[in-house]
Amino acid sequence: MTASSLGSRLIAALTVGLLSSGCALLTKAEPLSPRYFSAEPSNIGPTSGASLPAAERASSGAGHELKLGRVTSASFLGERLVFRDSPYELGFYEDRRWTEKPEAYFRRALSRALYEQGGFRRVVSGAGPTLDCELVELTELKAPAHLARARANFVLYDSRSVRTEATVTVELPIAQGKETAAPGASVAALALALTNAVDQIVRRVSVNLDAAPLEASSP
Question: Does residue 196 lie in a domain region?
């Protein structure tokens, strides 16, 4: 093979490579089209599990005065839906988004369960029992079982002492179906798990206030 022939082949190979790279650079990736989901109760679809019966919620507060204090969430609970493949690893769906941060759903669910449905009387200032809550997890578990998990910490206290503090965890199975319906089934189970966690908090707060004298709120 002559030097000129070898040079021609090298030039041809480089030209093909450059043309291929150019085509790859000019090819546009598919645009990401996120789907947005809400965890409000009106958007909960059929799934396994059930929240506290309405009649039980309505009588749980029994007229107790209560201030809803700080309601927060873990820093990783943001716009993107979260999943777990293992106990120690978190993943985030790029194409599945909440319409609001889970903290907002959690705060509204607590307020609704306590004051609209639970019979508690809202205290906005002065002394009296105060409830602080933190949503520490709202995730889809992929293994070993396909579950929706909601976990929250709460502390009930007054000016004298901490009355009670605990963590509640709710896990519900995610309905299996067609792949295209999987996101909706996951969100439905997550929303119901969050509702059930809130119901557990309300029930425990009510039991504690029933068992201990109520500290009168100041004007």
Answer: yes
Q: Evaluate whether residue 198 is within a structural domain.
A: yes
- Specify whether the CB–CB gap between 81 and 91 falls below 8 A: no
With H, G, I as helix, E, B as strand and everything else as coil, classify residue 16: helix
CA distances from 6 to 13, 20, 89 (A): 11, 21, 53
Q: What is the pLDDT of residues 135-179, one digit of tens each?
A: 999 999 998 999 999 999 999 999 889 999 999 999 999 987 655
CATH number, domain with residue 199: 3.40.50.10610
State the total domains in the chain: 1
Q: How far apart are CA 92 and CA 76, in angstroms?
A: 9
Angstrom distances, CA of residue 59 to CA of 55, 56, 202:
7, 5, 11
The runs of H, that is alpha helices, within the chain are 3-26, 54-60, 102-111, 182-211
Predicted local distance difference test score (pLDDT) of residue 19: 47
Residue 126 in contact with residue 212, Cβ under 8 Å? no
In a domain, 28, yes or no: no
Kindly give the interhelix angle for 182-211 and 102-111, rounded to the nearest 10 degrees.
Answer: 40
Radius of gyration of the CA atoms of the chain, in A = 26
| Domain region containing 178 | 36-211
> What predicted TM-score, i.e. pTM, was given to this entire model?
0.77
Q: What residues contact residue 90 under an 8 Å CB cut-off, 6+ apart?
A: 76, 82, 83, 84, 139
Domain contains 29: no
